[in-house]
From TrEMBL:
PANTHER family: CYTOCHROME P450 4AE1-RELATED (PTHR24291:SF187), CYTOCHROME P450 FAMILY 4 (PTHR24291). It holds the Pfam family p450. Its cofactor is heme. This is Cytochrome P450. GO terms for molecular function: heme binding; iron ion binding; monooxygenase activity; oxidoreductase activity, acting on paired donors, with incorporation or reduction of molecular oxygen. Keywords: Heme, Iron, Metal-binding, Monooxygenase, Oxidoreductase. InterPro entries: Cyt_P450, Cyt_P450_E_grp-I, Cyt_P450_sf, Cytochrome_P450_Monoox. Belongs to the cytochrome P450 family.
Length: 333
């Protein structure tokens, strides 16, 4: 793609196996595409995720996407995220201990960061611990990693892209088996979490255990939400939880890995980031971080933003239109 843009400019038309594609790296057009309500439907590539994720926020079409986006936005308010800082740190300590054992060795940092991300995302989305960093061969972790690999492979294999032929390939059957196991796990968590919420509600009504407000996991919010005047079904909840797990661990793992890569290659920047941490923690680098501490990490924030500029976790997104869309007086369709 870089060669095409170097040769033909920031925007090009291509004919591919799925039809005509308009590919653009023009900032103004991307801003237009992200802000207009005319280009909300996802491209066919997203269908490769539907067996696993169903029609959650990532894969749903325009009408459902709007409703779910409105419903889910409060779950990412800073007041909710603050509740999980201790979880982020506890899992971070496990990560650091594992990396200490690798001191002086060449390692694939992404492997370790991905397991950390799975622990954090699973804890904040479902309210359960999968201990991915301690039990790397757990069935859930293996199946999530397998599905990510299969989806990436299918996008790049012409013969597997066509649904009518896909069943003829081994990946189809591997995918079916992995999806079944992941769905069963998510449904079991939904069921147990619903029972726990009901028990907690009953206990609080009886005046017991009301001293502290418990953390609200993403799943808890879904279980207590309504859409079109009705509660969400287990299938709708499962789709959003699985989507959050996929999107959250993959993008976070990628961003953190590239940030560490860049810091390792720029020791002067790494030293400045370290000095900021020492300043914030004022001689007690091992104390637990607070939300205010995170707000004061201005230099580290710049490091992360520059990492995302150079190595975006999602380097491209795809949309499809069923009619011409006018941009700066020209039609695109």
């Amino acid at each position: 793609m870089t060669r095409l843009h170097d040769k033909y400019g920031k925007s090009v038309y291509l004919w591919g196996p799925t039809g005509r594609m308009f590919i653009s790296a023009d900032y103004d057009f991307i801003e237009f595409a992200l802000s207009t309500s005319l280009i909300l439907n996802k491209s066919d590539e997203y269908s490769f995720l539907q067996r696993w994720l169903g029609f959650g926020l990532l894969t749903s079409e325009r009408t459902k996407w709007r409703k779910m986006r409105k419903l889910l936005t409060p779950a990412f308010h800073f007041s909710i995220l603050q509740q999980f800082i201790d979880s982020f740190e506890a899992n971070g300590v496990k990560l650091v201990e594992k990396l200490k054992k690798m001191d002086g060795k060449d390692i694939d940092i992404y492997r370790y960061i991905t397991l950390y991300s799975l622990d954090v995302i699973c804890g904040s989305s479902m309210g359960v611990a999968i201990n991915a960093q301690e039990i790397e061969d757990s069935e859930y972790v293996k199946n999530v990693k397998l599905l990510c690999k299969i989806v990436a492979q299918r996008q790049n294999r012409v013969q597997e892209r066509l649904s009518i032929f896909y069943w003829m390939f081994p990946n189809y059957w591997k995918e079916r088996n992995a999806v079944r196991k992941i769905h069963n796990f998510t449904y079991s968590v939904i069921d147990s979490r619903r029972k726990l919420l009901n028990e907690t509600s009953t206990t609080e009504e009886d005046g017991e255990n009301c001293e502290t407000k418990k953390r609200v996991a993403f799943l808890d919010m879904l279980l207590q939400s309504t859409i079109d005047g009705r509660p969400l079904t287990d299938d709708e909840i499962r789709q959003e939880v699985d989507t959050f797990m996929f999107e959250g661990h993959d993008t976070t793992g990628s961003a953190m890995s590239f940030a560490l890569f860049l810091l390792a290659n720029h020791p002067d920047i790494q030293e400045k980031a370290l000095e900021e941490q020492k300043s914030i923690f004022a001689g007690n680098i091992l104390r637990q971080a607070t939300y205010d501490d995170l707000q004061n990490m201005k230099y580290l924030e710049c490091v992360i933003k520059e990492t995302l500029r150079l190595y975006p976790s999602v380097p491209f997104f795809a949309r499809k239109t069923d009619k011409d869309v006018e941009y700066k007086g020209k039609g695109h369709g």
